[in-house]
Structures are given as structure tokens and as C-alpha cells.
Specification:
Elements: H1 3-24, H2 26-32, H3 39-61, H4 73-97, H5 100-121
Length: 134
């Protein structure tokens, strides 16, 4: 399976799970990451969940698209920026507050940022014809 297809599928699944959890269980998400839930914060977490579900849908439907160079650059750039910025924010908070869950989350976001960085800055890999087709 091509790297870009695998990365798009994994990121879509990750964001769909994150979107579902943050949309329906924002209190638990906040408590797990060391924050006391209050009304406005819960609403923001639920809004973030909706964004993750939208991003998951975008990545899932674009999983077969050629990505690299100028091809699907906005898609790769949006994913890279999102994952890289969240990784930096989570890392900073994990260091400041010593919360292991934040460090684990930062590692996952860093891995996706690295993957999308590779897609963003490498030339596209041409599609290989199916060997089993007649």
C-alpha cells in the first residue's frame, strides 16, 4: 500500500475516533488531560470534535489521491500544519505541567506531522498499474 494512502487512512481513522470521543465525551477528555470541565471549555472541545470529524471525512475521501509536489498540496499542507502545531502545543504543555497523557498525545501528533511533512516536501510518486488487470 502506498505511503500516502496509508497515511491518509490512518489519519482519517485517528481523527474520526478523536472527533467522536471529543464530541460525545468532552468531560472525560478534559479530565484525562488534567483540566476541570466547565461550560465554555466543554463547548470548545465539542466544536473541536466536529472539526476532527470533518477532517476525518476529508482525509478518508482523499485517500486515493496522488499527493506530493504540487498535487493535492493544500490537503497535505492543511494536515501538516494541523498536526505540527498541535504537536508543538501538546509538547509545551506536557513539559510545563508534566502530564504523561499530553506527552503521549504529542508523540502521536508528531508522527502524523512527520508523515505529512514527508508528503508535502517530496515529489509525487507515480501510480503503478495494477499487475492483475487484463
Amino acid at each position: 500500500m502506498k505511503f500516502s494512502r496509508l497515511l491518509m487512512m490512518l489519519s482519517a481513522i485517528f481523527m474520526a475516533i478523536a472527533g467522536f470521543i471529543t464530541s460525545y465525551f468532552p468531560d472525560r477528555v478534559l479530565e484525562t488531560h488534567g483540566t476541570v470541565p466547565d461550560g465554555p471549555t466543554v463547548l470548545l472541545i465539542q466544536m473541536m470534535g466536529a472539526l476532527y470529524l470533518g477532517f476525518a471525512l476529508l482525509n478518508w475521501t482523499a485517500r486515493g489521491v496522488i499527493i506530493g509536489g504540487i498535487y493535492a498540496r493544500p490537503l497535505a499542507l492543511g494536515n501538516f500544519l494541523h498536526f505540527a502545531m498541535v504537536a508543538v502545543m501538546l509538547t509545551r504543555e506536557a513539559i510545563d505541567h508534566g502530564v504523561v497523557q499530553l506527552a503521549a498525545s504529542a508523540a502521536v501528533f508528531s508522527a502524523f506531522a512527520t508523515g505529512f511533512g514527508i508528503l508535502l516536501f517530496r515529489p509525487p510518486v507515480p501510480r503503478q498499474p495494477d499487475s492483475g488487470s487484463s
